[in-house]
Recover the amino acids of this structure.
């Protein structure tokens, strides 16, 4: 319930929200957690395994229990959800309701469901695992529900750069930012809270005679006025990565009732910082005792935060229990605010802090040994030297000490070091290059020292950065020293909980140790301790202590598990922002894209490009009809295709020819200017990298074409070969793929079409097969290549890209008047299969020049891949060599996934002789055709083999033939 | 992760393509005439293409500034900590080696 | 102690105080018949099958850290037998058969769940390649079903079939593919080996390999020298360092592979889904976390942690494929050290040193291989002959050119 005159909420601005369908009212400045607590909602969730009733434990992002679903997003911490009008939150992992949850029956079977029980059972009968046991386990497990609808929320990513990143805007962080900011450094201050100030907003500490939160507000105002300081509230730094890169999640729109279309819910930042100061504070831990998980049992610091920041009393009658001085603040603050303190319990026998008059009953040397209350705490069983008795209360504020929030300092593999005086781990200095850790995150527990440490760390950073420091007065805070006497677990009957989320008890950890899961990693993995959404932030220390005790080791020898990013869970949508839909990869469009789409061509992905599959005409109902027509047009008239997607690399320099001799297996130094040659390129390991034609435009000027798929790869390869292997060659090259639009004009009438366009028509003898040169089109100079991927008399005409669209329209129109047409990828594929030309379906990475019958090209010279290609395993009859495959029944379709076997052999691996890589229906030859690889294939032309595709139900007989099915002599292309 | 390209300055890792250790710089000399009998393959090629010291520590490896200037870089760094000690242009190294 | 549902009940009634250690903590003896360097999945399985199949029990498994502290506890838990090339096909097929009997063999529930694996394809060319792979699987005697787009939709209705950059043409369903609980595999083998008398020695780092006259005689460790006539190096990402102690250079480069898990969610993804265009694969653990991963970070590393570029790429791939997962939150990321070979396939072979054997090069496919790897390595060490299904995993195949390059990407270690 609310406490008058407390808190930083705005009571003039009520906000309506609902929880599990019930309407409540909170105030501006509330989180869902504080508002629920103010409305008396103590039961907020159910645990993972036993479905135990659970209430709020903390007031921060480490919250283990209050996980809710809102805006269809599961597993949101109520402690981090700022209240907005109409916020509708649902509890999770319960059915039919939070209060009456059927699976709470699991709790009754807890003795049989302890650590690792599932490794020891559910094994018989075997078939029951997938059929029965696993589905049951899966349904019982899990927390929130992920809707199967597409996430449509808006998320963004961004970069930021700074001299100094300050993580955490508590006293230490604020002082660091102030010093660096005043010195003129570019500073980013990131804090996961909506309101900066850290614990100062949750405590009644005075700094320089001012209430802590007001002091913080003053500093923040100054920082906000500095142009070189950027304050990033609601921003959690999630990970430390190499080179001073930090990941950070900013919650941008979650707290807005109706985020506009342009407001992302979250933004994931990549912050590159020259230096970082980690001032992330500390997280309070509990003490394990029997039934310590009831709603109403909370971290003492959270009870103070709800009181001081949100004006909420966590109970009507609050007991406070701790093993350290810090716990006492809770009782003090509560009593001062008029909340009844049932008792102040201190486990220490005679703490100095207990002296003096108090406004509440004080019991020292006292432990809590049990609790009662089904859906919420009703009383405690306490034990002091005099005996055991009950203490009535509805809230217990527990403090077992503080764990420094050192996670980011461990993201680069270093482990933290143990500090006995605070009974906690602290960061190892220098664990992350460029990062210093200050304040409570560094184990410094009093505020005055934190302030000084922050300032000093900033001065050191400034020095590192070569910037002048500034003088600041170090403020003084009024909180005293911090004494602690470790207490992890209270021995006794009943289950004492460590990991609230995963339902791990002290006994589970002890059992793990008994079963020799003695390494801390074994214990974690066996019991699931620390593997829940809070990643053990609330419980790992106590579990370590239990394990250390059970195995007879100290805590430092036992060690911690590994701290891994992210510090808090991050939505996949945030780190994957921009990837949804088409955003996953760039889209590349040919200059002919628009006219192609206008012609109704379905566009298909070819790498990052879009290319037309076929150009349908009225009356054609299947792609096959269009494809057949296009093939016929090329074979009998003329076809036009955009081939601009092929890589084009412009290569110039006195050593250009020598360089090409080195990267291709065949020679280019012998190629005359004005001629084109087919080239085959190997990887250094002797397998085919790519093929294509390269034209020599001038003695020192070549244009290489690559396949569409390998354009980038070849460019990178050429750069490597030049820079690393032959830097003495005077040659330069650059990709001109996007500078030139290039169109294939193929078919018996291709010259006629071309001549209708050229200013000076080509004569019969002027431009022979494999010639190249410049030609004039009306108003521009183009490049012409007499090359053919269809086997027909054909040209490729290249123009500067800005003319591409117009030229394509013109070419298509002219072709159509001559009985021709544009053709797409389907027809292109048929045309090349008929000719036995390879694509990456054949040169799939395991193929050598020998395999495709082109080893004859290899000239007597060194070249990339030459030596490796000579390895015995890559030569000889055992190799699968490329062949043509024709079905004995020409109308029998064959498939590109099929294998071939000897006739009569069963279709199993040992008998496989080869496989099919490409197939088509050849309208030219009225037969289905295939290209494939067959063991010793070139020696087997004429053989008939069994072709089997189990998946598609094909089992037929094919004849092995030369892969050139059509016009073996090549007269059509040359003529 | 960031690398300082000698030509472009400090850049994000995603601008770079990774190849492998600098063994790839030591391509064996290959004489196509003499090779005919041996098949051209030798232990030197096995070292060049396949075998690696693969140190858990200091390594010099090859990166390509694909999203930048197109330079191949030899980066000296620690494979256990990811600390970068030095970034050099491959062409400079090859020049020094006199090849 | 035999595990069973009855035992769980009986122990529950008695307060679970009677459970005995899953394995002993023996002190190393001065001599063993055989030593396995590496107490990960492959090493433990090797020891188990040496004891079970070959009756060799005077064995020590030497582990630098804790049992199963390497990739066996740091992977995406996928189990499949969907390879294309002879050499790989029969090996992974054998492994899957061992998986199918693993629970009863080990008397340990490794939660092997054959929920089906679907590899998506996004072009005609990819469909052909997957069909070819599917046929290879059936040729081998395993199972595969080619799904068209609607077939995929019936299994995975939550994928984005409309807006995605690389439209879904179909998928290859491998019904026997699935997942298993990774740690349990290590523990099951460890317990089984221990019960048969194998000494599992943790926190014992091998610092030297003793070789005399071309023959191995034992190892030096942080816990003293140990003699043995046969030593198996089964050290995954650290194989390079171990082999270096024997003066060997391996065809291996160690790389990081990151993986991710979300917070627990109610059942939503029932299969293993693999999205080749984005190098993204995902399944849901029985606890409810979505377990997913992508490609290598691509630079050589032993740091067992990665960087943001690949993290973000993996998330982006997930978003384009199945936008529903945008609302799920990544809880933890981690990295394993992958022993990448120049052809992407493993090595199980003798070395040039007599009595010294090696099992490495698992790239990022080692988890599913654990049973067959242990089986075949045990066979090799016991008989000095390669097992039939692992006969192509030779150390010298890169020199001879008898490669097993499934990806067809060539001799660049990080591309497989």
């Amino acid at each position: 319930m609310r406490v008058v005159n407390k808190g930083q909420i705005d009571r003039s601005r009520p906000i309506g929200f609902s929880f599990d369908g019930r309407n409540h009212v909170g105030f501006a400045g509330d989180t869902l957690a504080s508002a629920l607590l103010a409305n008396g909602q103590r039961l907020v969730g159910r645990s993972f395994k036993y479905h135990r009733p659970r209430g709020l434990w903390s007031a921060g992002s480490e919250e283990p229990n209050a996980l809710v679903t809102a805006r269809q997003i599961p597993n949101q911490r109520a402690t981090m959800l700022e209240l907005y009008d109409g916020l509708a939150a649902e509890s999770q992992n319960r059915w039919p309701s939070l209060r009456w949850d059927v699976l709470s029956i699991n709790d009754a079977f807890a003795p049989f469901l302890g650590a690792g029980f599932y490794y020891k059972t559910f094994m018989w009968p075997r078939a029951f695992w997938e059929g029965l046991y696993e589905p049951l386990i899966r349904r019982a497990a899990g927390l929130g529900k992920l809707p199967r609808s597409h996430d449509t929320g808006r998320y963004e990513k961004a970069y930021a750069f700074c001299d100094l990143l300050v993580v955490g805007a508590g006293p230490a962080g604020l002082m660091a930012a102030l010093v660096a900011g005043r010195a003129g450094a570019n500073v980013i201050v990131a804090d996961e809270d909506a309101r900066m100030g850290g614990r100062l907003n949750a405590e009644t500490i005075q700094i320089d005679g001012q209430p802590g939160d007001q002091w913080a507000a003053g500093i923040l105002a100054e920082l906000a006025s500095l142009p070189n300081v950027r304050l990033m509230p609601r921003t959690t730094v999630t990970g430390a990565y190499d080179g001073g890169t930090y990941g950070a999640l900013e919650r941008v729109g979650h707290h807005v009732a109706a985020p506009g279309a342009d407001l992302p819910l979250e933004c994931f930042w990549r912050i590159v910082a020259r230096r970082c100061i980690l001032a992330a504070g500390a997280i309070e831990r509990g003490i394990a005792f029997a039934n310590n998980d009831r709603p109403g049992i909370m971290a003492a610091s959270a009870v103070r935060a709800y009181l001081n920041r949100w004006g909420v009393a966590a109970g009507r009658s609050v007991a406070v229990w701790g093993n350290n001085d810090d716990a006492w603040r809770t009782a003090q603050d509560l009593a001062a605010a008029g909340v009844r303190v049932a008792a102040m319990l201190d486990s220490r026998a005679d703490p100095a802090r207990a002296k003096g008059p108090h406004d509440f009953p004080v019991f020292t040397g006292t432990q809590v040994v049990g609790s009662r209350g089904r859906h919420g705490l009703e009383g405690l069983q306490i034990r002091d030297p005099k005996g055991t008795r009950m203490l009535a209360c509805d809230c217990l504020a527990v403090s077992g000490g503080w764990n420094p929030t050192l996670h980011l300092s461990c993201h680069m593999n270093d482990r933290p070091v143990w500090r006995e005086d605070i009974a906690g781990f602290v960061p190892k200095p220098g664990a992350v290059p460029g990062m210093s850790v200050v304040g409570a995150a560094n184990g410094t527990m009093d505020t005055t020292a934190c302030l000084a440490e922050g300032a000093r760390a900033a001065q050191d950073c400034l020095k590192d950065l070569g910037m002048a420091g500034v003088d600041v007065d170090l403020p003084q805070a009024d909180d005293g020293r911090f004494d602690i006497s470790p207490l992890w677990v209270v021995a006794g009957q009943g289950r004492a909980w460590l990991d609230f989320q995963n339902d791990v008890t002290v006994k589970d950890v002890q059992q793990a140790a008994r079963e020799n899961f003695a390494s801390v990693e074994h214990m974690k993995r066996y019991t699931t301790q620390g593997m829940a959404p809070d990643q053990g932030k609330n419980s790992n220390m106590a579990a370590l202590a239990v394990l250390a005790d059970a195995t007879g080791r100290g805590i430092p020898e036992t060690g911690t598990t590994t701290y891994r990013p992210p510090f808090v869970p991050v939505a996949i949508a945030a780190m994957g922002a921009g990837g949804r839909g088409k955003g996953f990869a760039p889209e590349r469009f040919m200059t002919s894209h628009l006219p192609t789409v206008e012609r109704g061509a379905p566009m298909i992905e070819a790498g990052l490009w879009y290319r037309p599959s076929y150009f349908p005409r009225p009356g054609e109902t299947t792609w096959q009809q269009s494809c057949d027509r296009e093939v016929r047009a090329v074979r009998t008239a003329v076809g036009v295709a955009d081939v601009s997607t092929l890589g084009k690399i412009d290569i110039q320099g006195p050593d250009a020819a020598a360089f090409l001799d080195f990267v291709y297996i065949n020679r280019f130094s012998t190629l005359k200017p004005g001629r084109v040659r087919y080239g085959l390129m190997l990887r250094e390991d002797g397998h085919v990298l790519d093929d294509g034609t390269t034209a020599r435009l001038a003695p020192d000027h070549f244009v290489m074409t690559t396949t569409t798929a390998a354009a980038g790869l070849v460019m990178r390869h050429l750069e490597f070969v030049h820079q690393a292997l032959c830097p003495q060659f005077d040659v330069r090259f650059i990709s001109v793929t996007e500078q030139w639009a290039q169109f294939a004009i193929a078919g018996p009438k291709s010259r006629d079409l071309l001549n209708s366009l050229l200013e000076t028509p080509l004569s019969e003898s002027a431009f022979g097969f494999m010639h190249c040169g410049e030609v004039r089109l009306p108003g521009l100079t183009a490049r012409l290549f007499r090359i053919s991927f269809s086997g027909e008399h054909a040209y490729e005409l290249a123009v500067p890209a800005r003319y591409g669209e117009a030229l394509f329209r013109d070419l298509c129109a002219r072709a159509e008047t001559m009985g021709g047409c544009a053709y797409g990828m389907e027809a292109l594929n048929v045309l090349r299969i008929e000719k036995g030309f390879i694509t990456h379906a054949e040169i799939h990475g395991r193929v050598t020049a020998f395999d495709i019958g082109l080893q004859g090209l290899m000239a007597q010279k060194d070249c990339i891949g030459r030596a490796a290609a000579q390895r015995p395993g890559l030569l000889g009859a055992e190799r699968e060599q490329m062949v043509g495959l024709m079905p004995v029944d020409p109308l029998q379709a064959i498939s590109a996934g099929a294998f071939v076997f000897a006739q009569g052999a069963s279709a199993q691996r040992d008998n496989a002789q080869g496989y099919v890589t490409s197939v088509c229906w050849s309208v030219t030859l009225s037969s289905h055709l295939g290209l494939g690889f067959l063991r010793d294939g070139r020696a087997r032309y004429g053989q008939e083999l069994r072709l089997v595709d189990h998946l598609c139900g094909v089992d037929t007989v094919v004849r092995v033939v030369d892969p050139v099915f059509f016009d073996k002599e090549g007269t059509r292309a040359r003529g | 992760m960031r690398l300082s390209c000698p030509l472009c300055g400090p850049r994000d890792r995603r601008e770079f393509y990774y190849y492998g250790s600098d063994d790839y710089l030591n391509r064996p000399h290959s004489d196509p005439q003499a090779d005919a009998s041996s098949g051209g393959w030798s232990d030197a090629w096995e070292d060049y293409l396949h075998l690696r010291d693969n140190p858990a520590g200091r390594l010099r490896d090859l990166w390509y500034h694909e999203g930048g200037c197109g330079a191949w870089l030899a980066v000296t760094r620690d494979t256990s900590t990811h600390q970068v000690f030095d970034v050099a242009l491959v062409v400079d190294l090859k020049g020094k080696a006199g090849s | 102690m035999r595990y069973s549902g009855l035992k769980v009940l009986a122990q529950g009634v008695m307060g679970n105080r009677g459970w005995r250690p899953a394995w002993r903590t023996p002190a190393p003896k001065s001599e063993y018949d055989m030593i396995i360097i590496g107490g990960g999945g492959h090493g433990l399985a090797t020891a188990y099958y040496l004891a079970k199949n070959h009756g060799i029990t005077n064995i020590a498994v030497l582990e630098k850290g804790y049992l199963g502290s390497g990739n066996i506890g740091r992977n995406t838990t996928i189990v499949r037998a969907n390879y294309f090339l002879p050499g790989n096909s029969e090996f992974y097929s054998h492994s899957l058969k061992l998986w199918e009997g693993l629970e009863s063999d080990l008397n340990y529930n490794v939660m092997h769940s054959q929920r089906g694996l679907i590899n998506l394809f996004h072009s005609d060319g990819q469909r052909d390649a997957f069909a070819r792979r599917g046929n290879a699987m059936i040729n081998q005697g395993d199972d595969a079903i080619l799904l068209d787009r609607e077939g995929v939709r019936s299994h995975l209705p939550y994928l984005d079939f409309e807006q995605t950059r690389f439209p879904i043409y179909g998928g290859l369903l491998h019904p026997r593919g699935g997942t298993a609980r990774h740690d349990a595999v290590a523990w099951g083998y460890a317990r089984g080996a221990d019960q048969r008398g194998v000494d599992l020695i943790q926190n014992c780092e091998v610092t030297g390999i003793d070789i005399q006259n071309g023959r191995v005689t034992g190892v030096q460790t942080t816990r003293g020298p140990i003699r043995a006539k046969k030593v198996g190096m089964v050290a995954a990402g650290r194989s390079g360092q171990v082999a270096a102690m024997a003066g060997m250079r391996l065809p291996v480069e160690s790389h990081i592979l990151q993986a991710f898990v979300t917070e627990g969610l109610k059942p939503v993804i029932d299969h293993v889904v693999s999205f080749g265009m984005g190098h993204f694969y995902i399944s849901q653990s029985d606890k409810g976390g979505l377990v997913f991963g992508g490609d290598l970070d691509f630079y050589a590393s032993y740091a067992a942690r990665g960087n943001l570029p690949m993290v973000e790429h993996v998330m982006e791939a997930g978003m384009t494929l199945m936008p529903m997962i945008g609302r799920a939150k990544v809880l933890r990321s981690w990295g394993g050290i992958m022993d990448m070979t120049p052809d992407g396939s493993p090595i199980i072979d003798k070395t040039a040193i007599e009595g010294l054997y090696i099992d490495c090069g698992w790239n990022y496919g080692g988890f599913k291989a654990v049973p067959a790897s242990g089986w075949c390595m045990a066979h090799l060490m016991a008989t000095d002959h390669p097992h039939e299904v692992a006969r192509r995993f030779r150390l010298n195949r890169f020199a001879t050119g008898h490669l097993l390059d499934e990806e067809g990407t060539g001799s660049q270690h990080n591309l497989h």
Remarks:
- The helical segments of chain B are 32-38, 43-49, 90-97.
- Chain B touches chain A at residues 1-3, 10, 12-13, 17, 19, 24-25, 27-28, 30-33, 35, 39-42, 45, 48-49, 62, 64, 66, 70-72, 81-84, 89-91, 94-95, 99 (CB under 8 Å).
